[in-house]
Design brief:
With 401 residues, the chain is mainly α. The protein is built from twelve helices and four strands; from the N terminus they run αββββααααααααααα. The strands form two sheets. A two-stranded antiparallel ribbon has the order 1-2. A hairpin with a 5-residue loop joins β1 and β2. α3 packs antiparallel against α4, α4 runs antiparallel to α7 and α4 runs parallel beside α8. The longest helix has 42 residues. The protein starts with a helix and ends with a helix. About 12% of the residues have low confidence.
């Protein structure tokens, strides 16, 4: 049912885009701007709507022949180069670390195990790879190696991947919470055997929390699907919508993303706190660490969404500020916050303070292979993890939680 509703939403948005694209005049004004050098869209007002990174060489805005790199009143070229170098290097390093983490997971857990945990890793794997390639070869198409529209669409898709990554982390968090509560539930069952056992939490609370979490995940999955639909619509709207109403659509997308991250933050913060409050301190260390890190991701992403609105040059909120200054400032903040969010997600799966363990030779050492040996080791896994850091068993344990 949800899949069918998503398909209807996508078709509706595409139909709207095509209908807008067919309108070539507004108030009797005939377009005279041609193809805008293929770096923008000729609007029905007779002016060009240039893609980010491109500017008109005339006051009449009938072309998109120049780029921000050619500005003489602002040092845009060195600023762009420094941003490209920083973004390329950091995303490349993150991509290598994520690749290694996925390799270890595949080696010790298999390709089909821990699918939920892999989801968020695969999302930031794709986002860092795209950001690395995009900035290594071009910047909004101004260097001519990637078309401006392709750069625009890929840049927007990275935001979708980050939303999907957070959704994946929420599902991973729910799994961790459920596993912890099931462990507590087993302890509660000891009351039937040992009357002197002191309960840490009631069975009623455990059942309620597990039932609630089965519903809690649904909105996050639905919002991720809607965000993907908005991105698909955006791919059609950007090149085809020629009426001034594009400004409304553009603002809607930015406001939508801010609402998404804001609602994610409120819902996860409120219900996450309530769920953790009924969990005993002795069993909630791991889940609390993940919770705090997810709150950091939410904070970073919310700041990014807000900055995209405040520093927007197409629909300026800060009047009087040079549009090109807004451009470089907005994307400097945006790309750095995206990298920070990806780093925190990676840190949840592979703590960066323990990189030596993850890259040690012991991590790849073959030991205790065979089904019978794995079964015999399962009961003593926790003791081995504590006493033999860096062994295969520890890495395997980390990939499974």
């Amino acid at each position: 049912m949800r899949k069918r509703a998503l398909q209807v939403l996508i078709l509706l948005l595409i139909s709207l885009c095509l209908a807008q694209a067919q309108n070539t005049t507004t108030n009797g004004t005939i377009s005279v701007c041609g193809d805008c050098n293929e770096n923008g869209v000729c609007q029905t007002t007779g002016t060009c709507r240039c893609y980010p990174g491109f500017i008109s060489s005339t006051k009449a805005k009938i072309d998109c022949a120049s780029t921000i790199l050619s500005l003489k009143n602002l040092p845009m070229r060195p600023l762009v180069v420094s941003l490209r170098v920083e973004t390329t290097l950091i995303n490349f390093v993150l991509w290598l670390l994520i690749s290694w983490r996925l390799f270890l997971d595949a080696r010790f857990s298999g390709l089909t195990a821990n699918v939920v945990a892999k989801l968020s890793l695969l999302c930031i794997y794709a986002s860092t790879f795209l950001a690395w390639i995009m900035h290594a070869f071009d910047y909004w198409g101004t260097y001519g190696l990637i078309t401006p529209l392709a750069w625009f669409d890929l840049n927007a898709f990275v935001e979708v991947l980050l939303v999907a990554a957070f959704c994946g982390m929420v599902l991973h968090w729910i799994n961790l919470y459920n596993e912890t509560m099931k462990t507590i539930r087993k302890r509660e069952m000891l009351k039937k055997i040992n009357s002197s056992y002191v309960a840490e939490v009631s069975l009623e609370d455990i059942i309620k929390s597990i039932t609630f979490l089965s519903i809690f995940r649904v909105p996050y999955i639905a919002v991720t699907g809607v965000t993907l639909a908005v991105w698909i619509a955006r791919c059609f709207v950007t090149p085809f919508m020629k009426t001034p109403e594009y400004a409304v659509w553009y603002k809607f997308v930015n406001v939508y993303l801010m609402i998404v991250w804001g609602c994610f933050a409120v819902a996860f913060g409120f219900y996450g706190y309530r769920l953790l409050s009924i969990m005993p301190e002795t069993t909630s260390k791991k889940i609390k660490q993940v919770t705090w890190k997810l709150c950091i991701v939410l904070g970073i992403s919310s700041v990014n969404a807000l900055i995209m609105i405040l520093l927007d040059g197409y629909q300026p909120v800060l009047k009087g500020v040079d549009l090109n200054v807004l451009h470089i400032s907005k994307y400097w903040v945006s790309y750095n916050t995206r990298m920070a969010a990806a780093t925190v997600v990676l840190d949840i799966h592979m703590p960066l303070t323990e990189l030596k363990k993850w890259f040690s030779g012991n991590a790849l050492r073959t030991s205790r292979t065979g089904a019978s040996q794995q079964k015999s080791n399962k009961s003593g896994a926790s003791e081995e993890i504590e006493t033999r850091p860096g062994t295969k068993s520890e890495i395997q344990h980390e990939t499974e939680v």
